[in-house]
Amino acid sequence: MFKPLDPLLHSQLRLAVMSLLISVEEAEFTFLKEKTESTAGNLSVQLDKLEKAGYIEIEKSFRGKRPLTTCKITKKGIDAFEAYVDNLKNYIQ
């Protein structure tokens, strides 16, 4: 029996963000934007959805006079990502 895939993680951009964040302690917005090749606006919207779900934490600060947004995956996000990958494996076996 297949478990349903988490619709929040089934989005290509959100899955890419989670895949990046699971392998680092934290990542800056500009790093995520470059790696996912997304627009700032779209990335911002998707990060907000992940944060509202409790999958990531977003910290806003400044580096000098420039705004700095840093993201990191939460325990809930790690668990959700691992469950998603496990469920996906069931579909392809």
UniProtKB/TrEMBL annotation:
It comes from the Bacteria. Residues 13-92 form the Winged helix DNA-binding domain. PANTHER family: BSL7504 PROTEIN (PTHR37318). Pfam families: HTH_34. Gene3D superfamilies: Winged helix-like DNA-binding domain superfamily/Winged helix DNA-binding domain. InterPro entries: WH-like_DNA-bd_sf (IPR036388), WH_DNA-bd_dom (IPR027395), WH_DNA-bd_sf (IPR036390). It comes from Algoriphagus formosus. This is Transcriptional regulator.
